[in-house]
């Protein structure tokens, strides 16, 4: 056969295959589809001045270029104009939260205050003398007689001008919108999560629109970046340690597709805190305005089982301080928690008056000013005693906050799955169980009629239960070997560290339901800050890791910026840590200002450091990749277990 005849025959076969394919399509025959392979990350030179770091918080958002010394910090609030006249006005609360007006709330507050007073009395001052308690009545007698002095007939503070009817206002402008204007006030993030509720602006779509509006405003007004130029910029987004995957997915979608960033990296706040402080390992304690998160980070990896999120923070201290001020006859008698500017004043008073220094005792005189729009500037005198110490101690005795019937402690729960991400941990769990079953049946065949011993049964049950909480790559081993490897990497799961090892003998369904019940019971408790730190460290896998964490407890966020906080927390940790570790740990250290930096900026600074690392090249998710593969990219590229 000649060469020409061979080519003719091959061409005929190819045409025949194409005709068969067309016929199958016409008949509706489905051919197997091979899933698209995610390409390897490309390595390219990145200019860090074209990388934007975004650190969103409940009260403030911090945004800046990775090359900036300091980020732009803006109140994370937006005022949206009513679409129709006569529409009822709505405002998200600032210091008020659910669970405060229950019948048991006041009794719980009083009981918490008794525990605080006992703790204050039990710890001696540096001179070896016990502190003399000061009752609120002693201060009240003086404060009730106080009348304000007029400093100026005009406070020189004005409401935001809304005469040009802007559709929305952001940050400080939103805070100073006149309550009589036709604007709703929204805080899109509450306690580290989307502020989703049944009221106006409480839908997922509305929250995402608010975030996009606030962040776009900061980029345009403060960083002077036109939105059309964002295609030349990349973004680093910091997310909480215990994150909602659906929320993260929606924000990434918004940043890449709506705002138009060319690429993004998503990383956890706790890991970025270690980068920003220059520490390789630390127990990171982020005391924010509305939540407090604790997590152990080792060599750039957040230990999944050590993550805790406490549903209280600096704003709860502020509200408690206001309650104590009222008991002491607060001279500004028109102060109300429902007023935005009064909340701002109370935050300021907490920051300048409160402390955790037990050497400061007795009654002391102070003064403060009020400057509100359309009102004179006033000067008040006030006498305070133990109130300044009692309020911040609520972080260690959270019953003082008087919150009843709310979930106060959050743990890392199992992922519920996403239809866009079929190869998640549920898929790994089901395939792992099939491997377990096939290997077990093979072992049974090899063993013949010999019964399986108790040890083999235990290991197979334990292995299945453990991998239910394991991330990809950690449950690859079959039987007890895979479990041992996972235990070394991750340690016991949160539920099992609470339950004890004996529960592993239960069947799988009973084991998981029991674990869920224990976790729910644990989450209903309000752990004090010191107990939460001890619990988080105790969930680490090895004694060596625990020793590292005790020697490096890093405090970030603005909720614990009180005089004496470092010494106070160190004393409580040393007194409550397990006696066995007091001998092992050479030096327990609490770090509140690493490199003498503002603790509120450390996480953002860590995000900026991340942008400069060579290892981040493999973590970038590009806009085109996100459009094609969606949330699968986070599983492939995120530096933490998605």
TrEMBL record:
Family to which the UniProt record says this protein belongs: Belongs to the actin family.
Signal peptide: none
Region Disordered: start-end pairs: 1-30, 431-467
Listed Low complexity bias regions: 432-441
Organism: Oryzias latipes
Residues annotated as transmembrane: none
Amino acid composition bias (Basic and acidic residues), ranges on this chain: 1-27
Protein name (database record): Actin related protein 8
Lineage: Eukaryota, Metazoa, Chordata, Craniata, Vertebrata
InterPro entries from the UniProt entry: Actin (IPR004000), ATPase_NBD (IPR043129)
Domain of life from the UniProt record: Eukaryota
């Amino acid at each position: 056969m000649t060469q020409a005849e061979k080519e003719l025959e091959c061409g005929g076969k190819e045409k025949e295959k194409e005709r068969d394919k067309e016929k199958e399509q016409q008949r509706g025959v489905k051919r197997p589809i091979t899933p698209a392979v995610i390409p390897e990350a490309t390595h390219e030179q990145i200019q860090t001045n074209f990388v934007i770091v975004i650190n969103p918080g409940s009260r403030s958002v911090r945004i800046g270029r990775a090359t900036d010394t300091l980020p732009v910090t803006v109140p994370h609030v937006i005022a949206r104009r009513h679409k129709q006249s006569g529409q009822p006005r709505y405002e998200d609360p600032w210091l008020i939260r659910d669970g405060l007006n229950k019948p048991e709330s006041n009794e719980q507050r009083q009981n918490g205050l008794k525990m605080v007073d006992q703790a204050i009395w039990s710890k001696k001052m540096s001179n070896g003398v016990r502190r003399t308690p000061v009752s609120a009545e002693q201060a009240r007698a003086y404060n009730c007689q106080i009348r304000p002095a007029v400093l100026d007939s005009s406070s020189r503070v004005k409401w935001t001008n809304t005469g040009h009817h802007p559709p929305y206002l952001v940050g400080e402008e939103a805070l100073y919108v006149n309550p009589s204007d036709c604007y709703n006030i929204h805080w899109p993030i509450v306690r580290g999560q989307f502020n989703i509720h049944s009221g106006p602006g409480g839908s997922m779509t509305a929250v995402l629109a608010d975030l996009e509006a606030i962040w776009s405003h900061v980029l345009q007004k403060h960083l002077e970046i036109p939105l059309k130029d964002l295609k030349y910029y990349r973004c680093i987004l910091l997310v909480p340690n215990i994150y909602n995957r659906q929320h993260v997915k929606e924000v990434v979608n918004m940043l890449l597709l709506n705002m138009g960033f060319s690429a993004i990296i998503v990383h956890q706040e706790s890991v970025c805190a270690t980068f920003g402080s220059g520490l390789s390992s630390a127990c990171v304690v982020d005391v924010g305005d509305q939540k407090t998160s604790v997590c152990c980070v080792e060599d750039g990896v957040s230990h999944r089982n050590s993550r805790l999120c406490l549903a209280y923070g600096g704003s709860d201290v502020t509200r408690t301080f206001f309650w104590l001020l009222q008991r002491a006859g607060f001279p500004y008698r028109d102060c109300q928690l429902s007023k935005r500017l009064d909340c701002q004043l109370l935050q300021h008073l907490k920051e300048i008056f409160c402390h955790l220094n037990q050497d400061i005792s007795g009654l002391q005189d102070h003064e403060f000013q009020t400057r509100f729009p359309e009102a004179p500037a006033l000067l008040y005198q006030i006498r305070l005693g133990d109130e300044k110490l009692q309020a911040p101690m609520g972080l260690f005795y959270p019953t003082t906050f008087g919150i009843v019937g709310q979930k106060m402690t959050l743990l890392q729960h199992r992922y519920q799955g996403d239809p866009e991400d079929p190869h998640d941990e549920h898929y790994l769990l089901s395939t792992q169980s099939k491997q377990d079953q096939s290997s077990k049946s093979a072992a049974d065949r090899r063993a013949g009629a010999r019964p399986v011993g108790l040890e083999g049964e235990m290991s197979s049950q334990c292995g299945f239960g453990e991998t239910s909480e394991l991330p990809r790559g950690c449950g690859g081993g079959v039987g007890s070997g895979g479990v041992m490897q996972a235990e070394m990497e991750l340690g016991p799961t949160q539920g099992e560290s609470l339950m004890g090892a004996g529960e592993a003998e239960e069947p799988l369904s009973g084991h998981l339901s029991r674990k869920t019940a224990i976790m729910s019971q644990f989450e209903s408790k309000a752990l004090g800050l010191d107990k939460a730190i001890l619990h988080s460290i105790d969930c680490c896998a090895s004694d060596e890791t625990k020793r590292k964490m005790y020697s490096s407890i890093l405090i970030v966020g603005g909720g614990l910026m009180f005089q004496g906080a470092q010494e106070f927390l160190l004393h409580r940790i040393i007194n409550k840590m397990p006696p066995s570790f007091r001998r092992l740990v050479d030096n327990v250290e609490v770090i509140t200002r690493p490199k003498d930096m503002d603790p509120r900026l450390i996480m953002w600074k860590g995000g900026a450091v991340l942008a400069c690392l060579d290892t981040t090249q493999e973590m970038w998710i590009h806009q085109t990749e996100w459009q094609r593969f969606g949330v699968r990219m986070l599983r492939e590229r995120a530096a933490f277990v998605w």
